[in-house]
């Protein structure tokens, strides 16, 4: 639960914790691509003079458009109001020397625009800060669980309640739909829905949610078939309550235990499905950060001597999924009346 709360807070306030607070942490520096964790370099920032748009709240939760130019440099010197700098070059090479007028900087204060930048997790193959991408990428993996579970609960509760309470032909039709949906491999169904809705952020959320309602519906149906024979349901019918009130006010509150356990398991399943979709290239689209997409971009680095580029997002996915599974198991034990 502590891991879930921690990742939840990070996903909400990702741009507060991220060293690179630009939108999607997409500030590229190709000269310093694929650098090891802890890498440091001097960074020269050339101001564009364009003010970043957006309110404080917008920048807090969605980042800002960085219009300034950031250049990794090896050294610099000032001569007659002209700043000469040598661009960074790896493998012991000497970078190209360039110059810029000091007047380009506000009040000619160029020194405040040169600082040492540290990359805790190193950089990816595009030279972006990897720690910032990991932090911002937690948003998709975390929130897809909430959206998918919410959609699956709405559809699953509706279908399962109708099938379990009314039975007969209604139950037959709904169970036929459930069995057909159940027979289709989840990943293939998600891919089909994603291609129908289009590639994108919300399309993935909806697609994953629409494939996870079947298990909820089956459990709700089974629970309602047992509960509707209870004496309190018979008493509610004798008092003249309508079916909607009996289902929502009397039956569903008594069967929420199994639903909570299923929801925790569905959280973990949704995270894995989204990661698989992003790995296949039909999940969240670039430049949006996603743990699955980060593994896809860097899995070949496992054999190129820099496995951490793929292992870091992989470990993050493993921790989050394991946390939800452990919470689900604990809830199952706590809500099990027999134990």
TrEMBL record:
Main subcellular location of this protein, as a coarse class: membrane
Q: Specify the protein's topology with respect to the membrane.
A: Multi-pass membrane protein
One GO cellular component assignment for this chain's record is: plasma membrane
Q: Which keywords describe this protein according to UniProt?
A: Cell membrane, Membrane, Transmembrane, Transmembrane helix, Transport
Q: Which domain of life is it from?
A: Bacteria
Family designation = Belongs to the binding-protein-dependent transport system permease family.
**The protein's name:** Oligopeptide transport system permease protein OppC
């Amino acid at each position: 639960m502590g891991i879930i709360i921690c990742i939840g807070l990070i996903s909400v306030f990702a741009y507060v914790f991220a060293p690179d607070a630009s939108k999607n942490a997409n500030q590229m520096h190709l000269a310093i691509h694929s650098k090891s964790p802890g890498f440091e370099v001097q960074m020269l920032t050339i101001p564009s003079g364009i003010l970043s748009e957006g309110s404080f709240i917008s920048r807090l939760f969605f980042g800002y458009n960085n219009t300034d130019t950031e250049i990794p440099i090896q050294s610099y010197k000032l001569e007659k109001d002209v700043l000469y700098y040598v661009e960074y070059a790896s493998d012991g090479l000497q970078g190209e020397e360039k110059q810029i007028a000091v007047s380009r900087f506000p009040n000619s204060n160029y020194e405040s625009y040169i600082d040492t930048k540290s990359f805790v997790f190193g950089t990816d193959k595009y030279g972006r800060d990897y720690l910032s991408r990991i932090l911002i990428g937690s948003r998709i993996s975390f929130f897809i669980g909430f959206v998918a579970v919410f959609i699956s609960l709405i559809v699953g509760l509706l279908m399962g309640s109708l099938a379990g309470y009314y039975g007969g032909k209604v139950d037959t039709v709904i169970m036929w739909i459930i069995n057909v949906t159940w027979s289709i491999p989840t990943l293939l169904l998600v891919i089909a829905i994603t291609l129908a809705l289009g590639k994108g952020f919300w399309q993935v959320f909806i697609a994953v949610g629409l494939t996870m309602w079947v298990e909820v519906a089956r459990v709700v149906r089974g629970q309602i078939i047992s509960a509707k024979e209870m004496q309190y349901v018979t008493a509610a019918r004798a008092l003249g309550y309508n079916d909607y009130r009996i289902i929502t006010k009397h039956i569903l509150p008594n069967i929420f235990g199994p639903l909570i356990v299923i929801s925790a398991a569905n959280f973990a399943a949704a995270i894995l499905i989204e990661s698989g979709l992003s790995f296949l290239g039909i999940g969240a689209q670039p430049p949006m950060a996603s743990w699955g997409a980060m593994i896809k971009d860097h899995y070949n680095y496992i054999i190129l001597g820099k496995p951490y580029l793929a292992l870091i997002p992989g470990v993050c996915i493993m921790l989050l999924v394991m946390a939800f599974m452990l919470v689900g198991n604990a809830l199952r034990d706590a809500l099990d009346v027999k134990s």
